[in-house]
C-alpha cells in the first residue's frame, strides 16, 4: 500500500501516524491494514472518572437548596474533569478508530449534561460501546439515556402534555434529515415516547401512567406504538441509511458528496444497519484513496490538537488550560453549541481561529505567549486563568516530549518532514520558503511546518 494512502487512512480513522508505524504498515496489503485497524479497536474500554461523591447522595438531599447548589457545583467541576479525561483518551487511544468514531457520534447524537457527571459519562460510553454496532440498537439506547432524556426534554413528555422536542430531533438530526417527515409525524412520534424517564441514578424507567397507550398513526402505519416501534418504522425508510451514509462520507471522506459513492454505501448499510460493515466498505473502497479525497478536510480543533500530539507529545500542566485552548479554537468537548452540533469544514476557520491555529504549535511546543487582546474573549480568558486583573499576554504551560519526536523522526531529514507532515499540494511560495529554512534545527523546522495554513488540512 502506498505511503501516502496509509497516511491518508490514519489521518481519517485517527489523528496521524509516525514514520516507523507507516513503514511497518507499508509491507501489508490494504485488506490487512484495514483488518488490523478494526481488530485493534475491537476492545471496548469505558472512560470513567471518580464519581464516588455521588454514592451516598439521596433524592431527599436535593430538597435542601444549599446542598443542591453545592452538588451542582461539584458536578460541573467533574464534567470538566471528564472532558479533560476524554481529551487525553483521544491523545492516547487504546483503540484508535473506536475513539475517532466516538468523536464522530458525539457530533451526531448531540447531547449535553453539565449538572450530572454520571449521566454524561454513561452517555459518552454508550457512544463508545456502540460506535461499530447496529444503528437501530444504538438509536434505541440513545433515546433512553438519562442525559438525552434531560437534554431534549423527553422527561417532560407526558400523555396529557406531549413534548415534541426529542421526536423532532430524532427525525431531523439523528435519522432522516429535514423535510423527510411531517408535523403530524412529529406529534404522533412524540406520543409514542411519552413516559420515558429515568431513576435517580440514571437508569431508564418507563412511567406507565404517563405513557399514551392509544393508537398512533406514524408514516402511514397505525398501532399502539412505543418509542422503539417508532425507531423501527423510521429505519424501514432507505432515507435513513442515506442520511447516515452522507454524514459519514462528509466526516471521513469529503465534505462534497459524490452520489455514486453514497449509493454504494446505502446498498451496504440499508440491509442490516451494521456500522462496522459500512465503515469497512468505505475504507476498502478504491475511491476513498482518490486524490480528490486526500488533504481536503479541514481538521477540527480536537483533530488539530491530537495531530500535533502525534508528532510531538505534550501535556498541559494546568488541566483548565485544556478547556481554554479548546474554547479559543471553537470546540470544547462536552459543550456542543446546540443540538445540531458543530458545523464542520470551512466553519472551523475564521480570521480569529486561523491566527490562533497558526500560532498554536509555537504556543504549545515553544513556550510562545498568547496575546489575550487578540482572542476576542478576554473576560473568559482572565477567569479561566484565575487572574485578578486584565492581562495582555500569558503562557500555556506544557511539558513537551521532544525525546519521542527525536526517536520517531531521527532518520528523517527536514526535507522529508515536509512530505511526512504536509500535503504535497503546498503553495510554491510556501515550499520555497520552507526549503530556504531547511538547515535550521529539526525541532524548529517541525514547529514551522505545523504553523502554516497547509497543516490545517488532512
Helical/strand content category: mainly alpha
Q: Strand percentage, roughly?
A: under 5%
Shape: globular
* Uncertain residue ranges: 373-390
Roughly what is the average pLDDT, rounded to an integer? 93
Number of strands: 8
Largest sheet: 2 strands, antiparallel
> Going across the major beta sheet, what is the strand order?
1-2
State the end-to-end distance: 18 Å
**Element string (H = helix, E = strand):** HHHHHHHHHHEEEEHHHHHEHHEHEEHHHH
Estimate percent helicity: 40-55%
**What is the rounded Rg?**
24 Å
Textual characterization of the structure:
The protein is mainly alpha-helical. Among the domains are: 1-40, no CATH class; 301-456, no CATH class. The protein is 53% helix and 5% strand. The protein contains 22 helices and eight strands. It has helices spanning 3-13, 19-25, 30-40, 65-91, 96-106, 117-129, 135-143, 146-151, 165-175, 183-192, 227-235, 238-252, 259-272, 275-284, 301-311, 319-329, 351-365, 378-384, 402-409, 414-421, 428-436, 442-449, and strands spanning 196-198, 204-206, 216-218, 221-223, 314-316, 370-371, 393-394, 398-400. The strands form four sheets. A two-stranded antiparallel ribbon has the order 1-2. The longest helix is centred in the first third of the chain and has 27 residues, at 65-91. The relative contact order is 0.10. Mean pLDDT is 93; it is low at 373-390.
Amino acid at each position: 500500500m502506498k505511503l501516502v494512502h496509509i497516511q491518508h487512512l490514519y489521518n481519517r480513522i485517527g489523528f496521524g501516524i509516525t514514520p516507523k508505524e507507516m513503514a511497518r504498515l507499508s509491507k501489508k496489503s490494504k485488506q490487512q491494514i484495514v483488518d488490523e485497524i478494526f481488530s485493534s479497536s475491537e476492545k471496548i474500554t469505558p472512560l470513567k472518572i471518580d464519581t464516588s461523591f455521588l454514592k451516598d447522595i439521596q433524592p431527599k438531599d436535593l430538597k435542601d437548596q444549599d446542598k443542591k447548589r453545592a452538588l451542582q457545583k461539584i458536578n460541573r467541576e467533574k464534567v470538566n474533569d471528564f472532558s479533560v479525561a476524554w481529551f487525553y483518551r483521544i491523545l492516547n487511544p487504546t483503540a484508535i478508530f473506536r475513539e475517532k468514531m466516538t468523536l464522530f457520534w458525539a457530533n451526531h447524537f448531540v447531547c449535553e449534561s453539565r449538572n450530572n457527571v454520571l449521566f454524561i459519562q454513561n452517555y459518552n460510553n454508550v457512544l463508545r460501546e456502540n460506535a461499530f454496532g447496529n444503528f437501530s440498537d444504538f438509536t434505541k439506547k440513545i433515546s433512553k439515556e438519562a442525559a438525552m432524556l434531560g437534554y431534549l426534554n423527553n422527561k417532560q413528555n407526558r400523555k396529557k402534555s406531549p413534548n415534541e422536542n426529542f421526536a423532532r430531533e430524532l427525525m431531523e438530526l439523528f435519522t432522516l434529515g429535514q423535510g423527510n417527515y411531517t408535523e403530524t409525524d412529529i406529534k404522533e412520534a412524540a406520543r409514542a415516547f411519552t413516559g420515558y424517564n429515568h431513576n435517580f441514578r440514571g437508569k431508564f424507567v418507563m412511567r406507565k401512567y404517563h405513557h399514551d397507550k392509544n393508537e398512533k398513526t406514524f408514516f402511514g402505519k397505525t398501532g399502539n406504538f412505543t418509542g422503539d416501534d417508532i425507531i423501527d418504522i423510521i429505519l424501514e425508510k432507505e432515507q435513513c441509511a442515506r442520511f447516515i451514509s452522507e454524514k459519514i462520507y462528509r466526516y471521513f471522506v469529503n465534505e462534497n458528496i459524490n452520489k455514486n459513492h453514497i449509493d454504494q454505501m446505502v446498498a451496504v448499510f440499508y440491509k442490516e444497519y451494521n456500522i462496522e460493515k459500512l465503515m469497512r466498505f468505505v475504507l476498502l473502497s478504491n475511491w476513498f484513496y482518490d486524490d480528490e479525497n486526500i488533504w481536503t478536510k479541514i481538521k477540527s480543533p480536537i483533530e488539530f490538537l491530537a495531530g500535533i500530539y502525534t508528532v510531538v507529545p505534550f501535556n498541559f500542566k494546568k488541566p483548565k488550560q485544556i478547556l481554554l485552548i479548546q474554547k479559543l479554537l471553537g470546540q470544547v468537548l462536552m459543550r456542543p453549541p446546540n443540538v445540531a452540533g458543530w458545523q464542520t469544514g470551512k466553519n472551523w476557520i475564521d480570521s480569529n481561529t486561523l491566527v490562533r491555529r497558526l500560532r498554536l504549535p509555537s504556543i504549545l511546543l515553544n513556550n510562545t505567549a498568547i496575546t489575550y487582546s487578540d482572542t476576542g474573549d478576554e473576560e473568559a480568558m482572565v477567569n479561566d486563568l484565575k487572574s485578578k486583573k486584565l492581562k495582555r499576554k500569558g503562557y500555556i504551560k506544557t511539558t513537551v516530549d521532544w525525546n519521542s519526536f527525536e526517536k520517531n523522526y531521527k532518520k528523517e531529514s527536514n526535507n522529508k518532514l515536509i512530505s511526512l507532515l504536509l500535503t504535497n499540494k503546498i503553495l510554491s511560495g510556501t515550499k520555497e520558503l520552507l526549503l530556504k529554512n531547511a538547515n535550521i534545527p529539526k525541532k524548529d523546522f517541525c514547529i514551522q511546518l505545523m504553523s502554516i495554513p497547509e497543516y490545517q488540512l488532512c
